[in-house]
Amino acid sequence: MSVAPAYRPAPRIRELGSEFYDPVVAASFPAHRLRLRNDAHARAVGLDALDDAAWIDHFGRFRALPGNLDEPLALRYHGRQFGVYNPALGDGRGFLFGQVLADDGRLLDLGTKGSGQTPYSRGGDGRLTLKGGVREILAAEFLEAQGVPTCKIFSLIETGERLVRGDEPSPTRASALVRLSWSHLRFGTFERLAYHRERESLARLVEHVVANYHPSARRPTTAASAAALLEVVCAKTAALCARWMVAGFVHGVLNTDNMSLTGESFDYGPWRVMPTYDLNLVAAYFDHDGRYAAGRQPRVCLWNLERLAEALLPVAEAEALRAALAGYADAYAAEVRRAFCERLGVAPRGAARDDALIDAAYALLDGSNLSLDRFFFDWYGGEASRERALAGPAAAAYAERPLFGEFAAALRGYAAAVPERLCDPYYAGARPIAVTIDVVERLWAAIDRDDDWAPLYAAIEELRAAGRLWGNRPGDRSAP
């Protein structure tokens, strides 16, 4: 195979030992139709030189990458699903395929979804619907454009199988997906070891995560490192959740096995983006009690961190862990201010002023039919966009809202952080980008009905162009 010099295999998961994973065999598929290859991120790990045949061989048939894992590994973990502890989890329809060093030196994982059954499939077929793969692409691309830490969808290959599902019209098309993410490890990895009272393995996992992902948490003892690690993970999780909230993103299934040690969003199932500001929005049809509703996400993330702290108790001091958890609220509030000002395109003016602006904006949006995307589009750049906003399609809606005056007063004095962005054709256009459920369904309908992928590829390019405009630099689209 042809790999670039930037390709640096680093299968460090082996350092943890065989009690952390199970070797598995990938499924054999009747067909391999390449639907997406993410060359921009492949370039960062030296895999962009693969031709399509080699790409399919590695990311559809899962032939081992040179110098990397010689067999796929299904990782072992537990988790709390909707608050209930489940010891029967683990990688059930995916595995860790390889690990590589990125051009910035980070250790990255190539993990799969829909690649076949494992010892943790629990009776499932280990497959992923094609629609599920398309939805994962859109979630990751949207979040990356918004500056939210997220895995990258590295590859999507349609596999020629027909799947039966209870929540999609069936039979439906199947796919195999590969994610590039900053760690395959999750809160549930620690929970499993605590559950089995494997103290030595728990200590080894702490040292592994600190060494490979959070070296700033290294301390003279494992106990001190564990507490410092929790402090870092709290800060990163708070920042992640804050950016979800500002982006209007609802993950849908915030179980502890879906929470990453690196504060990166991944595993996009029944996600939604708020069409209007609605903290009661529930993404998952099976979330009957609204446990993971939009407005509950900050508290749920803290609850999950508290469960991680409990798992660390065998190797850390309780008081130090409590102190680490105490930093979550301030970290969350600070990141909301930062993310809100970034999305609004204004220079921050201090915590008190920024909080007042945020409160006024959400008060204006609360209960209205104003599109969240439209609001941030109209007012990007602050007062510099007032004339544009009040001449746009939502002008009447602003005028009709009694709280508009309070928002306008709070916005006074906020200048565009990067004024030249307002000269971009995007802000001269008629509409903001959006990936609300109606957009997702429309893009899928074109694929499902006519096998027309052009609208999806156009949507990806639009998201990446917006991300580059906002300084988040998603890579250029690469599609067959």
Helix content: 40-55%
Q: Count the E strands.
A: 12
Overall SS class: alpha+beta
Low-confidence stretches: 475-480
Instruction: Spell the H/E element sequence.
Output: EEHHEEEEEEHEEHHHEEHHHHHHHHHHH
Gross morphology = globular
Give the termini separation: 20 Å
Residues in β-strands, percent: 5-15%
What is the residue-mean pLDDT, rounded to a whole number? 95
- Radius of gyration (CA) equals 22 Å
User: How many H/I helical runs?
Assistant: 17
- Biggest sheet architecture: 6 strands, antiparallel
Structure explained in plain terms:
Helices cover 41% and strands 12% of the residues. By secondary structure, the chain is α+β, with helices and mostly antiparallel strands. A hairpin with a 5-residue loop joins strand 6 and strand 7 (107-113). 49% of the residues are buried. Mean pLDDT is 95; it is low at 475-480.
Defining key terms:
two-stranded antiparallel sheet; 41% helix; 6-stranded antiparallel beta sheet; alpha+beta; 12 strands
Topology:
Blueprint: E1 21-23, E2 33-37, H1 39-44, H2 52-59, E3 73-75, E4 79-81, E5 84-86, E6 96-101, E7 107-113, E8 128-129, H3 130-145, E9 152-163, E10 172-181, H4 187-195, H5 199-212, H6 222-247, E11 249-250, E12 272-273, H7 297-312, H8 318-325, H9 328-344, H10 351-365, H11 372-378, H12 386-390, H13 395-400, H14 404-411, H15 425-428, H16 437-450, H17 454-469
Antiparallel strand pairs: 1-3, 2-9, 4-5, 6-7, 7-10, 8-10, 9-10, 11-12
Helix pairs in contact: 3-17, 4-7, 5-6, 6-7, 6-8, 6-9, 7-8, 9-10, 10-14
